[in-house]
Amino acid sequence: MLRYDRYEGQRDKTVIILHGLFGSAKNFSSVAAALTPYATVYAYDARNHGLSHHTATHNLNELSEDLAEFITEQQIKNPILIGHSLGGLTAMDYIRRRGDTVRALVVLDIAPRTYPLGHEKEIAAQKIMVSAMATRKDIDDVMQKVLPDRVVRQFLQMNIGRDETGQFVWQNNIAAIEDSKSRTVFPPYENPLFRGPVLSIRGLRSDYVTNEDIVRMRAAFPLLESHDLPDAAHWLHHTHRDEVTRLISAFVQRV
């Protein structure tokens, strides 16, 4: 079962927000709230993330099917899909199969291709036994030895909750995510992948979306609008929330 938040808003449009790897729906709470003058917004925790169900496997096909089931269960028609990183890949894979059911697409720092393995430091940080620690400062002090980047540490620490005994716990199913990351492969597709409106926002301090990717995306998405944030890295919705929110809001308002 996918845990989700619904933000009641203007009813002519519906937005679904898909967070990225190691994220959760709450990463986009302020973005979702800002979109309510233009749409009703859903944001859910992907499988093996946040408070959604844990499974032994974790791959793009399953994530795409989870999205399809969510749309059916909520009786959503022609959604605008917004996805960061793995969430963007999920949205694009859904569109690859069912593009005629989607109104528009927003992708945050991701392109429709397979990415090499990585995230070793982030995975190592989430293997730290937080249940043995008394405060979040204690957790951060230990994480810093594995993951020096303060911004990424803060982002990952949003996945720490407490169990029924009050001890700290990681909410992500890191074992399944680590075991399955080699299977997050974006399938081949024919151009155009999607003929509807598409907004791409990339951080120029990130290597996730290259200039060559933008060229390929223009072939895949004929109506592509591309925006660059010069001083943003991959977690741009966390570090540049106001600018990302402004760009997305303007796009959702006019599509």
From TrEMBL:
Gene3D superfamilies: alpha/beta hydrolase. Keywords: Hydrolase. One of its GO terms (molecular function) is hydrolase activity. Pfam families: Abhydrolase_6. Signal peptide: none annotated. Residues 15-245 form the AB hydrolase-1 domain. InterPro entries: AB_hydrolase_1, AB_hydrolase_fold. PANTHER family: PROTEIN ABHD11. This is Alpha/beta hydrolase fold containing protein.
